[in-house]
Structures are given as structure tokens and as C-alpha cells.
Amino acid sequence: MLDVLGAIMLVGGAILTWVLLIRAGTPDPAVRRTVATRVALWFAAVAVLGALGVFGVQRFGTPFIGLAVVLPVVVGVVLGRRMPALHYRLMNIPLAFLIALNVGRLLGVYFLLLYAQGRLPSTFAHSAGWGDIAVALLAIPVALAAHRKVAGWQAIVLAWNVLGFADLITAVTLGVGSSNSPLRFISELPASAAVGTLPWVLIPAFFVPTFLLIHLAIFVQLRRSWAISAAPRPARA
């Protein structure tokens, strides 16, 4: 039952997150269709590979999950650097909106539910689960601070963004560290094999890269904001 509910929520969360991102990124219907098609193909590839058991411990396991996390982020960063139009669109998505999208990380509660069912180890499940929940809940006041540009809003956003980015990296590290692989350094039972199966593999292979890219976009927008703030104002005549 938890797997069915998780599949519904994860698929729905993935669609909602990217629909909002695409709509905020450009008003051009053709560009929207192109981006939506590519994201759908990415999602479908993860789902098909997950259904075939490619991410499972009996097949390629941890290395493929690692590749699924890193490859979309690398592709996103390269495209952002080499395509000025894409970079321009990312820079013009409202910063508060990018922050607010992280409310979707409340889905991290499923790590805790899987732990309660005895399907994930304690350290990994609690770190990933509570970390995501904390980042999601803090996203609301941080987004409001950025939108209203309250005193010190840039430092507030930076601190939250570092926390959110670090939470994802920590979750991936602990997931690898508690997996059935030579890289394992956490001996708790059970291993983290559940995240290599559907629907849960959608979290490391689709949601984690998505939110890592969002965090990177926030870092870039913050850097631009600080540069604008530091620029000398023209003297009045």
C-alpha cells in the first residue's frame, strides 16, 4: 500500500514541480513543449530502468544510482553555461518562486515511513527524511523574506540554500554508505536497497537532481543580486 501511495505522490510531485518550473521559465509555447518533452523522456528513462531492476542490488545498483544523480546535474550546468537563452530564462525565474518549490521536499516523509516498515536503515532514513522536511518547511518563510526583500534577506537565502544543498548531498552519501556495495560504511540493517526499486528510485534519480539544479540556480541568482548591490550607483547630476 505504501508503494502505491508513494508512486502516486512521487509522480504527481514530479509533474507539478516541472510544470511550475517550465511555466515560470518561459511564456513561449514551443519552448515549453520542448523542455516538457525532454523532462518527460528523462522521467520515463528512470521509470523504465527502475522497472527493469537496473538500479537494484542484483544488477548495477549503487553506481547507476550515482550516475543517475550526477549526469542530469552536469548536463543542466553545461547547458546553462553554453546556452545564453536558457541562462537568461533561469535568471528571470523569481528567486522566491525557486525557493518555494522546495516545499515539495515534504515528500521526504516517505523515508521515515519506509524506516517504520523496516525497509531503510535508521541513520539514512532519519537524516534524509527530517532533513527534507526541515528544508521544505523553512522554504516558506525564506521565500517570503526573499520576495519582500527584508533586511538581510540575501544572507538568509544563502544560509537556507547551503542547508538545502548539503541535505541532498548528505542524503546521497548516507544512501551510498548504507547500500549493499563495496562503498558501504554504515553497517545498520536493513541496507538502503529499497531506494533502488520503484517507485522510490525516483527520489535519487529524478527528484534529487531536480532540486540540486534548483539550488544551483538560486546560488547563481544570489551572486547576481550581490553583484548588483555592490555596483556603484551613478552620481546624481
Describe the 3D structure.
By secondary structure, the chain is an all-alpha fold. It has one domain (2-229). The chain is built from 9 helices and no strands. Helix 3 packs across helix 4 (84-91) and helix 3 (61-82) packs parallel to helix 9 (202-230). The protein is globular. It starts with a helix and ends in a 7-residue tail after the last helix.
Give a quick set of tags describing it.
237 residues, mainly alpha, 73% helix
Number of structurally distinct domains: 1
Q: How would the global form be characterised?
A: globular
What's the total number of strands?
A: 0
Estimate percent helicity.
Answer: over 70%
User: How does the major sheet shape up?
Assistant: none
SSE string, helices as H and strands as E: HHHHHHHHH
Distance between the termini: 71 Å
Give a quick rundown of the structure.
The chain has 9 helices and no strands.
Can you lay out the helices and strands and say which pair or pack?
Blueprint: H1 2-25, H2 29-51, H3 61-82, H4 84-91, H5 95-100, H6 109-116, H7 122-148, H8 153-177, H9 202-230
Helix pairs in contact: 1-2, 3-4, 3-9, 6-7, 7-8, 8-9
